[in-house]
């Protein structure tokens, strides 16, 4: 959070995005649930299942891994991916939606991370679902600023290992719909939602970006 954001505001943003995503999922056909998401190798169903796993404690993680010992790996991304796929195979779409809605109002979050990671997951994974399907899913710019700031500040830490790292060094990223800018160099300007996707390894909205740095970035990708 920034100095002006309270825990109540942060959790309200998380609840808002969870509700928006659940509402979107409730409109999907069976074929859309099986479509690829922005996450390479993940379907829309896999991403929805992953979103239900945002409140895991050490105890619940142990129970889940005891039921599915094959999920245990030194590769964190493998464990995350296989956990989502396993749950997606076990539960019907209606139950996945119910579980996402049931988290609204709760302030539990995964062990070893902060609510800022919960917010980022809610915002970004909603787009992982919506963008490939060509469906609109609004992202609150203020919430996106909080998430983008957190992801930028934790680049190079273990928290960033779950994301593909795009070549953003030597560029200045500036939001056109919010007061936010980071980095130094040729400018890449665009909606904060598009910039948040970039920072989390998703170039899905590069067409929405402009500036001298946008052409340089496109050449790097």
Could you characterize the architecture of this molecule?
There is one protein chain. The protein is mostly helical and 221 residues long. It is 52% helix and 5% strand. The protein has a 3-stranded mixed sheet with strand order 2-1-3. Helix 1 (7-25) packs parallel to helix 7 and helix 3 (44-51) runs parallel beside helix 6 (93-102). The longest helix is centred in the N-terminal third of the chain and has 19 residues, at 7-25.
Supply the key terms.
single chain, 221 residues, mainly alpha, three-stranded mixed β-sheet, 10 helices, 3 strands, 5% strand, globular
Instruction: Report strand %.
Output: under 5%
- Helical segment count: 10
Would you report the number of β strands? 3
Principal-axis shape equals globular
Structural class: mainly alpha
Main sheet properties: 3 strands, mixed
The end-to-end distance, rounded to whole angstroms, is 30 Å
Mean pLDDT score, rounded? 90
Low-confidence stretches: none
Write a concise synopsis of the structure shown:
This protein is mainly alpha-helical and 221 residues long. Helix content is 52%, strand content 5%. The protein has a three-stranded mixed beta sheet with strand order 2-1-3.
Give the arrangement of secondary structure elements.
Layout: H1 7-25, H2 30-33, H3 44-51, H4 58-67, H5 76-90, H6 93-102, H7 115-133, H8 141-153, E1 172-175, E2 181-182, E3 187-190, H9 192-199, H10 212-220
Parallel strand pairs: 1-3
Antiparallel strand pairs: 1-2
């Amino acid at each position: 959070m920034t100095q002006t954001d309270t825990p109540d505001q942060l959790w309200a943003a998380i609840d808002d995005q969870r509700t928006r995503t659940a509402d979107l999922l409730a409109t999907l056909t069976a074929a859309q649930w099986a479509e690829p998401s922005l996450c390479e190798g993940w379907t829309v169903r896999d991403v929805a299942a992953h979103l239900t796993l945002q409140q895991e404690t050490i105890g619940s993680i142990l129970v889940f891994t005891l039921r599915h010992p094959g999920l245990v790996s030194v590769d964190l991304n493998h464990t995350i991916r296989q956990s989502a796929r396993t749950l997606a195979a076990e539960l019907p779409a209606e139950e996945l939606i119910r579980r996402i809605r049931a988290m609204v109002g709760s302030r539990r979050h995964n062990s070893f991370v902060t609510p800022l990671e919960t917010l980022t997951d809610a915002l970004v994974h909603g787009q992982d679902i919506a963008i490939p399907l060509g469906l609109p899913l609004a992202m609150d710019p203020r919430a996106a600023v909080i998430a983008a700031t957190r992801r930028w500040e934790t680049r190079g830490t273990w928290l960033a290992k779950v994301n593909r790292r795009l070549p953003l060094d030597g560029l200045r990223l500036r939001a056109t719909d919010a007061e936010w800018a980071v980095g130094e160099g040729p400018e890449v300007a665009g909606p904060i939602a598009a910039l948040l996707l970039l920072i989390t390894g998703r170039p899905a909205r590069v067409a929405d970006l402009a500036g001298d740095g946008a052409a340089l970035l496109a050449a790097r990708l």
